[in-house]
Design brief:
The chain is mainly α and 166 residues long. The chain contains 5 helices and no strands. The structure holds MU-OXO-diiron.
């Protein structure tokens, strides 16, 4: 049985994942606006993965005979100063999400909720990947600096990212 406290926290994370999707979609729109369609496509795939994360929480709460409730999604920022600034913010955001996931794991332990604990393990692993992939792009963009040629090559590379992961 899902406790009320655990249910509220899982619904809160559903909302946080929806916000991540919204944030990355807004970043995608910004990247389109500065003529980097490959970066924009990469970010749209990222946004759709966040929707899948949200739906995992939706599914878990329902599977446990809990009640999903949806709260308002905060509006994301619309402007950034550069592609590097975008990915620095992605990295920071993912670190924040990792903290939220770890908080949920602690709550599941405190509540003796082994099912939620097992469910959350997937996210603990996923966050390692999420932080690593954002950090790699921050480092690449720092190397690229203001050089248009390498930036367009990286844009082409990122445009190859395929949808379909989690
Ligand atoms: Fe849902 Fe990017 O973590």
């Amino acid at each position: 049985m899902l406790s009320k406290k655990m249910q509220d926290a899982l619904n809160g994370q559903l909302n946080a994942e929806m916000y991540s999707a919204y944030l990355y979609l807004s970043m995608s729109a910004y990247l389109e606006s500065i003529n980097l369609p490959g970066f924009a496509a990469w970010m749209r795939v990222q946004a759709s993965e966040e929707m899948k994360h949200a739906m995992k929480f939706y599914g878990h709460v329902n599977d446990r005979r809990g009640r999903v409730t949806l709260a308002a999604i905060q509006a994301p920022p619309a402007e950034w100063s550069s592609p590097l600034n975008v990915f620095e913010e992605v990295y920071k955001h993912e670190q924040k999400v990792t903290g939220l996931i770890h908080g949920l794991v602690k709550l599941a332990e405190a509540e003796g909720d082994r099912a939620a604990g097992a469910f959350l393990q997937w996210f603990v692993t996923e966050q390692v990947e999420e932080e690593a992939s954002a950090d790699v792009l921050v480092q690449k963009l720092k190397l690229v600096g203001d050089q248009a040629g390498p930036l367009f090559m990286l844009d082409h590379e990122l445009g190859q990212r395929e949808a379909g992961g989690d």
